[in-house]
Amino acid sequence: MTKERFWVVGGEYSCLAFKTLKNGAPQVMGPYETRDEARAAWKRISDETRSCATARYAIATEQLTLPH
Prior knowledge:
- It is a single chain.
- This protein is α+β, with helices and mostly antiparallel strands.
- The protein has one helix at residues 35-48, and strands at 2-12, 27-32, 55-65.
């Protein structure tokens, strides 16, 4: 049996090429049990950082294999 969990990952990058995070490590939020919960968190953080052109966040999915 498999289960999905969702994470919001990102942060402020050093330039608009979005290759290197400014602080070195990404900001990670979650896990969220549903994509809708993750999307709400993504929307909130995206709105908070809207004025920062070098901030970028995405939703990542994790596949878990559960024992029977």
